[in-house]
Write a structure and sequence with these properties.
Strand 17 and strand 18 (275-279) form a beta hairpin. By secondary structure, the protein is α/β, with parallel strands linked by helices. Helix 1 packs parallel to helix 7 (338-356). The protein is globular and about 65 Å long. The chain starts with 21 loop residues before the first strand and ends with a helix. The chain contains 9 helices and 23 strands. The longest helix has 19 residues, at 338-356. It has helices spanning 47-56, 80-84, 169-178, 198-212, 232-244, 293-296, 338-356, 407-425, 434-444; strands at 22-23, 26-29, 35-43, 65-68, 73-75, 94-96, 106-108, 112-116, 121-124, 129-137, 142-143, 160-161, 182-188, 217-223, 248-251, 253-259, 264-269, 275-279, 282-284, 289-290, 323-325, 370-377, 380-386. Helix content is 24%, strand content 24%.
């Protein structure tokens, strides 16, 4: 591995920097066409980006940390399952970005269009050149509705929704409320996605709603995967749930087209490549997802799948030791969830901290912890916690069987976790339940 002493320092400014006028005590801009120097640059204002910026801003002087993020609103996306299910409002899931970013950091309201890791700099959409000594890439995943023929136009028609987008999550709620019976389809695409349990969580909420109204529904879960869930302990529990509720599961099925004029969905069998056309009365679509183009087209930074190539334990880039990654955009082979980001923040604190101090030794190793609260109803949830082994193994916190549907776990998901997210995780304080797992295991010993 390269030592930090061999990496190139940022190039000197060839043009004079412009001083940004503070907005609510920190810098922000939309267009400057300038060149900037920072000690630490964080690309992305999601959970990982906000958490990292808040963790490290006090380790540097004023104006030495920058966050590049174009959006002015930050959404707690795990809540969108409950928004689509009619249990929360969209407004409850969002906060202004400037209320979450550290005031001592510079917020560049911009997008990255190109990385130049050999020169320790990047270029933004507005034309700015940003030089850095250390870079944290936290860009998340991009929703690729365009990969499905007929989308996004189909969202303007009745019965079509998606919990993955702020634009379409309320359409899911409407589709469920207006459903009168017939085929209700729920899809899982042929790509890595955010929260792999989310495509079926909304299905269970919809089924419960239909059942409570006495509506007859042919509910179909059509997933590109070969299993209902990656970790066998929870997969076995979920099979019991779908069997008990009469839900039809079709594996290795990938949605390729929506025909709104005939209300039909076309699926490709990934084993035979045969196409099957299925009528729908409502459909919830989970879109294919990928890293943003500026990242996945940079071959120096990404792996064969287009994800930021990092060591799965240290989160340090495999080629550039002054670059780290966190969250969904990285090559870490764990389920992409907010819980995984929280655990990675603890690793980032130690390893990026060591790199900043001049050490080439990374003191912390990520064990792959991730969690997916599998909501199965309006008062029940299976709290899946597992690692990134192949196959994944349970990594549970509580001294109970977490594969069982529980009211307590639903309360944790619906009410406690949002508070923990807003006041702990994005502020850089919450690093996952590892300490509690140790306490419970010590108490049971």
């Amino acid at each position: 591995m390269m030592s930090l002493s061999t990496m190139r320092l940022p190039t000197l400014l060839s043009r004079s920097s412009l001083q940004l006028k503070p907005t609510r005590q920190f810098s922000s801009t939309i267009r400057l066409d300038a060149e900037h120097n920072y000690k630490l640059v964080v690309v992305g204002g999601g959970a990982g980006g906000c958490g990292t910026a808040n963790k490290f801003v006090n380790k540097f002087g004023p104006g030495e940390v920058a966050v590049i993020e174009p959006n002015t609103m930050h959404y707690y996306q795990p809540m969108w399952t409950l928004v689509g299910g009619g249990l929360k409002t969209l407004a409850q899931s969002g906060r202004p970005m400037d209320s979450l970013l550290p005031k001592a950091a510079s917020w560049l309201r911009d997008s990255v269009t190109g990385f130049e890791p050999e020169n320790n700099r990047l270029v933004t959409e507005s034309g700015d050149v940003v030089n850095y000594e250390f870079l944290v890439v936290a860009m998340g995943l991009q929703l690729r509705y365009d990969k499905i023929k007929g989308l996004p136009e189909a969202f303007d028609t009745p019965g079509v929704g998606s919990n993955y987008s702020v634009k379409y999550v309320e359409k899911t709620q409407k589709a469920i409320q207006e459903f009168k019976g017939g085929n209700a389809l729920f899809t899982y695409p042929n790509s890595p996605i955010k929260c792999p349990g989310a495509p079926q969580k909304i299905m269970y909420l919809a089924e419960e709603t239909f059942r409570s109204k006495g509506i007859s529904a042919n509910i179909q879960y059509r997933s590109s995967l070969g299993v209902i869930f990656a970790c066998k302990k929870y997969a076995d529990a979920l099979w019991e749930v779908v069997k008990g509720r009469g839900i039809n599961v079709h594996l290795r099925q990938h949605l390729v087209e929506i025909k709104t004029d005939t209300k039909e969905a076309v699926f490709e069998n990934l084993d035979t490549n045969e196409l099957e056309t299925v009528p729908y009365d409502m459909i919830h679509i989970t879109p294919p997802q990928s890293t943003p183009p500026s990242l996945h087209t940079n071959k120096d930074l990404v792996d064969a799948g287009g994800f930021l190539s990092v060591d799965k334990e240290t989160l340090q880039h495999t080629k550039f030791p002054n670059i780290f990654g966190i969250g969904d955009c990285t090559s870490v082979p764990t389920a992409k969830t907010a819980a995984a980001v929280a655990a990675q923040l603890g690793i980032m604190r130690k390893n990026l901290g060591a790199a900043i101090s001049g050490s080439s030794i990374m003191p912390a190793a990520y064990a792959g912890y991730t969690s997916c609260p599998l909501v199965t109803g309006k008062s029940s949830c299976i709290l899946a916690e597992f690692d990134f082994q192949a196959p994944p193994q349970p990594m549970e916190t509580f001294p109970v069987n977490q594969a069982k549907e529980r009211w307590t776990m639903y309360q944790l998901k619906a009410h406690f976790m949002p508070t923990l997210y807003w006041h702990g995780m994005v502020k850089g304080w919450w690093e996952g339940p590892g300490i509690f797992r140790k306490i419970f295991k010590f108490g049971m010993a």
